[in-house]
C-alpha cells in the first residue's frame, strides 16, 4: 500500500461557476483556475500522484498548455488514474476535506463522492468528502478562496 497527500487552493472570482468535486454548486462566485478550478479534484489528483511517486498536477498538466484550458477537473482525474494504472497501481481509498465558509456543501457531498468515484472507477463507498470552515480566520475565513486536502491510498 502507498499513501499520498494533496492540497489545493483557488481564489473566488466573479463570472465563473463554482465547481467542487465535479459538481456545479449554486453560488455568486466561482473559482479561478486554468481548468475549471475544482480545488477538491486537484487535491485528489495530487494525493494520487504523490502516492505513486509522481510529480504534481502542475507538472502533469501545466497552465501554459492550452489543451487543459477550461478542462473539467474530473477529466484530469481520469488521466491521473490512467497514469498510475500504467505504473501498476490502483486507487483503494480517498479521504478529503474542503475548507470554505460558504456556500454549505452538505447537500452536494454524496454527488461529489459519486463523481470522484466515477472518475477513478472505484466504489463510492471508497471516497469520503468532508467540509469545515476556517472560523472566519484568514483568506479562507473571509471567503476569498476555497482549499481542499486529500489523502489517497493506492494498492498494486
Describe the structure.
With 156 residues, the chain is of the alpha+beta class. The chain has a single domain (2-155), classed as 60s Ribosomal Protein L30, Chain: A, CATH 3.30.1330.50. It is built from 5 helices and 7 strands; from the N terminus they run ββββαααβαβαβ. The protein has helices at residues 39-51, 57-60, 73-86, 109-120, 138-141; strands at 2-13, 18-20, 23-25, 30-31, 90-99, 127-132, 145-155. A 5-stranded mixed beta sheet has the order 4-1-7-5-6. Strand 2 (18-20) and strand 3 (23-25) form a beta hairpin. The longest helix has 14 residues, at 73-86. The radius of gyration is 15 Å and the shape is globular. The mean pLDDT is 97.
Task: Describe how the helices and strands are arranged.
Layout: E1 2-13, E2 18-20, E3 23-25, E4 30-31, H1 39-51, H2 57-60, H3 73-86, E5 90-99, H4 109-120, E6 127-132, H5 138-141, E7 145-155
Parallel strand pairs: 5-6
Antiparallel strand pairs: 1-4, 1-7, 2-3, 5-7
Task: Offer a few descriptive terms.
alpha+beta, 5 helices, 60s Ribosomal Protein L30, Chain: A, 7 strands, globular, 156 residues, two-stranded antiparallel sheet, five-stranded mixed β-sheet
What fold name goes in the CATH topology slot?
60s Ribosomal Protein L30, Chain: A
What is the helix tally?
5
Please state roughly what percent of the residues sit in beta strands, choosing from under 5%, 5-15%, 15-25%, 25-35%, 35-45% or over 45%: 25-35%
CATH superfamily: 2-C-methyl-D-erythritol 2,4-cyclodiphosphate synthase
Radius of gyration: 15 Å
Low-confidence stretches: none
Give me the strand/helix succession.
Answer: EEEEHHHEHEHE
The strand line-up of the biggest sheet is: 4-1-7-5-6
Q: Whole-Å distance between the termini?
A: 7 Å
Shape: globular
* The CATH top-level class label: Alpha Beta
* Main pleated-sheet profile: 5 strands, mixed
- The count of strands amounts to 7
The percent range for helix content is 25-40%
The CATH level-2 architecture is identified as 2-Layer Sandwich
- Average pLDDT, to the nearest integer? 97
Number of domains: 1
Structural class: alpha+beta
Amino acid at each position: 500500500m502507498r499513501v499520498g497527500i494533496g492540497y489545493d487552493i483557488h481564489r473566488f472570482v466573479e463570472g465563473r461557476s463554482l465547481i467542487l468535486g465535479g459538481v456545479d454548486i449554486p453560488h455568486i462566485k466561482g473559482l479561478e483556475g486554468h481548468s475549471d478550478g475544482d480545488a477538491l479534484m486537484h487535491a485528489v489528483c495530487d494525493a494520487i500522484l504523490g502516492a505513486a511517486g509522481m510529480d504534481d498536477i502542475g507538472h502533469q498538466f501545466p497552465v501554459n498548455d492550452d489543451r487543459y484550458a477550461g478542462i473539467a477537473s474530473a477529466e484530469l482525474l481520469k488521466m491521473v488514474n490512467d497514469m498510475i494504472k500504467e505504473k501498476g497501481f490502483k486507487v483503494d481509498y480517498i479521504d478529503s476535506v474542503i475548507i470554505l465558509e460558504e456556500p454549505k456543501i452538505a447537500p452536494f457531498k454524496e454527488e461529489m463522492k459519486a463523481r470522484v468515484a466515477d472518475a477513478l472507477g472505484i466504489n463510492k463507498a471508497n471516497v469520503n468528502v468532508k467540509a469545515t470552515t476556517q472560523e472566519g480566520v484568514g483568506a479562507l475565513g473571509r471567503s476569498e478562496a476555497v482549499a481542499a486536502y486529500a489523502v489517497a491510498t493506492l494498492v498494486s
